[in-house]
Write a structure and sequence with these properties.
Elements: E1 2-7, H1 9-20, E2 37-40, E3 45-50, H2 55-60, E4 66-70, H3 71-77, E5 82-86, E6 92-99, E7 110-114, H4 117-125, E8 131-135, H5 142-145, E9 151-156, H6 160-164, E10 167-176, E11 178-182, H7 184-189, H8 191-207
Parallel strand pairs: 1-3, 1-4, 7-8, 7-9
Antiparallel strand pairs: 2-3, 4-11, 5-11, 6-9, 6-10
Length: 211
């Protein structure tokens, strides 16, 4: 069986629809139970329902052969796996945001609050800017309001939360969307079926005018 790691939550709903559109129905996930593993004998696949931030770990470690995960998680974790296809789902941007009246002081490090320290470090190191990373796990927007940080580095989709907290985007620097990924060893031994799924997903995207 091909093991496919799927994310829970809002992105998951879009992913399930995308797979169903190419004949890989996983609607059983919506059943009223707490199962986390679902098998489809018809397609000879096993779906693993996991936390979005864990999908890449399951694939990189070989517990899953393929998976669908956000580009933000891939870049933050720097996993050893194959990135096969941009699915154009969950499209947003990694951004630098700050208070509306923020003015950068070039004479000291920028205090950066973020859930993505590795992404933030790479971004600022690209132009040799010294920073002080403040790792947070949620409610990032509060940090500059309370003076904990100068800016935040976070995912922005609509920008509504920023506006409601008197913040604005200063820089968009990394496009984010869901990616189809594969374990390197699995790709060697199950390449035919993995390539078939990849091709069908690509063809669907072409039909929809997304690539």
């Amino acid at each position: 069986m091909l093991n496919i790691a799927l994310p829970k939550g809002r992105l998951g709903d879009k992913v399930y629809e995308r797979l169903a559109s190419i004949g890989y129905d996983c609607s059983e996930i919506y059943a009223d139970n707490r199962k986390l593993v679902f098998e489809s004998e018809e397609n000879n696949v096993r779906y693993l329902l996991v936390k979005p931030s864990d999908v890449a770990i399951y694939v990189a470690r070989g517990a899953a052969d393929i998976g669908i995960v956000g580009k933000d998680i891939l870049d933050e974790g720097n996993f050893d796996l194959y990135e096969l296809l941009d699915l154009r789902l969950g499209v947003c941007n990694m951004c630098v945001a700050a208070k509306n009246d923020y003015v950068e002081d070039p004479n000291r490090p920028i205090r950066v609050a973020t859930k993505f320290p590795n992404i933030a470090k790479r971004y600022y190191s690209s132009f040799n800017r010294e920073i002080d990373i403040i790792k947070l796990n949620g409610s990032i927007e509060i940090a500059p309001l309370l003076g904990l940080s100068d800016v935040i580095v976070d995912i922005v989709e609509t920008g509504t939360t920023l506006k409601e907290n008197n913040l604005r985007v200063y820089e968009k620097f990394l496009p984010i969307s869901a990616r189809l990924i594969a374990n390197k060893s699995s790709y060697r031994f199950k390449g035919d079926v993995i390539n078939d799924i990849t091709s069908k997903l690509r063809e669907q995207l072409i039909k929809e005018g997304k690539i």
